């Protein structure tokens, strides 16, 4: 079959053997009827009422979707609701006061449990405090906190009084915080004295102070005392102690403010993997409905579950699947402050075991680390409570997928490989775990109601087996409404390329390249910009990486293009191995062999560089942009956005010695 884009001509789709959902899972799944796809199709957009029905509305909406001003869509317009009331209050009314809402696992083994009643009290008191500090409806409150319970409490307190929150990942720099506060004109900040990082007390407050020096506006700051005597701090003017405020407003209750479905719930920046982070605006009704519905249908969350999404709330995954989705459904959500390897590499499995976690959701970067460390760590614990596994954030290749399936799920738990973005708000592509077959290496079809299309440059859908641009041809409830830096950038980033305003056809462009198979399953091939052009053939870096990680002993790989006089671009591969494996000839040969078999000799790397780690963003994604600069001997920009900046120097030194 010809591939108009030349990204995937005539070769087998790189996925593992399909697997059916285990019958024990299907028996109890929230969604089991394959008819749901047709049902949504025939009844679109009203089908999305199923999602809206998972919420409690103060006033019902006039219509499901208003699209007159596309691409500025409105979902459930006219409806009124409050996100905090949906995530907290209504569970008290339904007799779940003593049910655990948040189970917090601290870095040093501390534990805290918040029942829905506890959460209600905390959110009301802090909402009262925020109001007293002057926060009004629609004021943006910036939250710069690590993974402590005060983070979701602060988010829900904002939501209660109708103040959009902007959570800035705690590991980001003072500059990053200042830029975000400045862009949103935010005059309120919730932060902490510090937190433990690898055993040391790390000063967060001084970063927050530095950020404020760069701001023109006056800021009122609430400081959570996380470290106590380990890091004494003094409060200055316009600075307030969180616990002190809670005491001042002890027992206060605040009526949740009814918000329009289209009112902003929060502002969230993208990870910044491909360039300047984009400030994404999410609204109250559509976002919450989509997050709740996907928690129900994709993650199979039930109120009696203990559910754990091991992401950071500082990214969209944590917003939708630690806070809003699971709490809207009244389940127990686990929140973990630490890292997976402290005190030992079995830390996560110890938490799963002790809490009898039912559902576990993480990222490929973590799964690859687990694989690298070895299966003896999960083997130390009883993981039989697990029912479903999930992954999000980057493509996962078949080998780590199978490792996860076997060593964590014991071949009993379906895996959902969920493709989505900060901009989509919630999951958009995934199998439904109680319905569909899983294909390792392919995320799955679009969810019911989604119109996912892989298209070529002219906008025509590609044939099965071919690759193209991953786009969405119909709006969906959780979609980004605009970018904080303006409607114009919103149109140019996502809509202009494949839409035709004259015929009122709107196609959202994700920025990702993908291939679709005969069953409509999507394999994400990476960012469009990550596709490299070797002698006129466009090759997907993800696919070459997948061939490399298919080799026993290889944990992770990153492939970039290096300019070459002969081919235009050469393939340059960075590889990191599992414990016990080294850079040896056998591994190199196996890598080349695998690439030639899976893709062809054209994709054969001219260089394979072994490195103990790959540079990653704070959200755990490989920074190919930087690796490309390194391979090309170019000057590097700012590396402060990296989680492990030191590795870049090590790689450069290694290349220098070659
Ligand atoms: P920026 O947009 O600033 O470059 P980012 O795209 O990394 O940052 P996110 O919104 O956190 O920020 O990530 C979304 C991207 O993550 C998707 O566009 C896709 O490239 C990747 N991704 C997420 N889930 C999956 C998945 N299951 N399979 C493949 N890729 C995924
Ligand atoms: Mg993106």
UniProtKB/TrEMBL annotation:
Higher taxonomy: Archaea, Methanobacteriati, Methanobacteriota, Stenosarchaea group, Halobacteria
Domain of life from the UniProt record: Archaea
Pfam families in the record: ACAS_N (PF16177), AMP-binding (PF00501), AMP-binding_C (PF13193)
Biased composition (Basic and acidic residues): 1-12
All residue ranges annotated as the Acetyl-coenzyme A synthetase N-terminal domain in the record: 36-87
Keyword Ligase recorded: yes
Domain AMP-binding enzyme C-terminal: 543-621
Gene Ontology biological process: acetyl-CoA biosynthetic process from acetate; carbon fixation by 3-hydroxypropionate cycle
Identification of the protein by name: Acetate--CoA ligase
Native species: Natronorubrum bangense JCM 10635
NCBIfam families, alphabetized: Ac_CoA_lig_AcsA, PRK00174.1
Keyword set, alphabetical order: ATP-binding, Ligase, Nucleotide-binding
Stored InterPro entries: Ac_CoA_lig, ACAS_N, AMP-bd_C, AMP-bd_C_sf, AMP-binding_CS, AMP-dep_synth/lig_dom, ANL_N_sf
Disordered, as annotated region: 1-30
Stretches assigned to the AMP-dependent synthetase/ligase domain: 97-476
């Amino acid at each position: 079959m010809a591939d108009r884009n030349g990204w995937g001509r005539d070769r087998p789709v790189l996925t593992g053997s399909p697997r059916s959902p285990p019958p024990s899972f299907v028996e109890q799944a929230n969604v089991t009827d394959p008819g749901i796809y047709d049902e949504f199709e025939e009844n679109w957009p009203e089908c999305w009422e199923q999602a809206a029905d998972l919420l409690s509305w103060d006033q019902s909406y006039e219509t499901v979707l208003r699209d007159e001003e596309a691409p500025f869509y409105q979902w459930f317009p006219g409806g009124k609701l409050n996100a905090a009331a949906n995530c907290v209050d209504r569970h008290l009314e339904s007799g779940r006061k003593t049910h655990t809402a948040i189970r917090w696992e601290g870095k040093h083994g501390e534990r805290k449990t918040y029942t829905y009643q506890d959460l209600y009290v905390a959110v009301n008191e802090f909402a009262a405090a925020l109001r007293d500090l002057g926060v009004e409806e629609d004021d943006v409150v910036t939250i710069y906190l690590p993974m402590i319970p005060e983070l979701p409490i602060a988010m829900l307190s904002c939501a209660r009084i109708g103040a959009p929150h902007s959570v800035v990942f705690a590991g980001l720099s003072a500059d990053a915080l200042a830029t975000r506060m400045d862009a949103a004109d935010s005059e309120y900040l919730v932060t902490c004295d510090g937190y433990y990082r690898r055993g040391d007390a790390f000063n967060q407050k001084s970063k927050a102070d530095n950020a404020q020096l760069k701001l023109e506006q006056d800021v009122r700051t609430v400081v959570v005392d996380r470290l106590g005597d380990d890091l004494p701090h003094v409060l200055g003017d316009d600075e307030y102690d969180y616990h002190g405020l809670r005491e001042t407003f002890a027992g206060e209750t605040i009526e949740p403010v009814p918000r329009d479905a289209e009112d902003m719930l929060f502002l969230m920046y993208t990870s910044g993997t491909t360039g300047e982070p984009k400030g994404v605006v999410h609204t109250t009704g559509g976002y919450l409905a989509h997050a709740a519905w996907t928690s129900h249908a994709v993650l199979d969350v039930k109120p009696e579950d203990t559910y754990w999404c091991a992401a950071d709330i500082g990214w969209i995954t944590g917003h939708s699947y630690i806070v809003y989705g699971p709490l809207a459904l009244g389940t127990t959500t686990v929140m973990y402050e630490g890292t997976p390897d402290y005190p030992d590499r079995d830390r996560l499995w110890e938490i799963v075991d002790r809490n009898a976690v039912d559902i576990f959701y993480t990222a490929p970067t973590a799964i690859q680390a687990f694989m690298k460390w070895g299966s003896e760590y999960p083997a130390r614990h009883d993981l039989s409570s697990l029912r479903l596994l999930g992954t999000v954030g980057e493509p996962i290749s078949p080998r780590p997928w199978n490792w996860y399936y076997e060593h964590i799920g014991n071949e009993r738990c379906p895996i959902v490989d969920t493709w989505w973005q900060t901009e989509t708000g919630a999951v958009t592509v995934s199998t439904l775990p109680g319905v569909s077959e899983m294909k390792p290496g392919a995320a799955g079809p679009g969810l019911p109601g989604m119109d996912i299309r892989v298209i070529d440059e002219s906008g025509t859908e590609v044939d099965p087996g071919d690759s193209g641009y991953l786009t969405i041809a119909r709006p969906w409830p959780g979609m980004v409404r605009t970018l904080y830096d303006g409607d114009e950038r919103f149109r140019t980033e996502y809509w202009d390329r494949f839409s035709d305003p004259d015929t009122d056809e709107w196609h959202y462009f994700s920025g990702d390249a993908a291939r679709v198979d005969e069953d409509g399953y999507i394999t994400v091939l990476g960012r469009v910009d990550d596709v490299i052009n070797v002698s006129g053939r466009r090759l997907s870096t993800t696919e070459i990486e997948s061939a490399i990680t298919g080799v026993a002993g290889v944990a992770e790989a990153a492939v970039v293009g290096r300019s070459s006089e002969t081919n235009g671009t050469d393939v340059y591969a960075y590889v990191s191995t599992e414990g016990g494996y080294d850079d040896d000839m056998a591994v190199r040969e196996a890598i080349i062999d695998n690439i030639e078999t899976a893709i062809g000799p054209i994709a054969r790397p001219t260089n394979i560089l072994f490195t103990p780690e790959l540079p990653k963003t704070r959200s755990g994604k490989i920074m190919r942009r930087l690796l490309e600069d390194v391979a090309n001997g170019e000057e590097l920009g700012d590396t402060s956005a990296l989680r492990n900046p030191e590795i870049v120097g090590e790689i450069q030194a290694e290349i220098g010695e070659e």
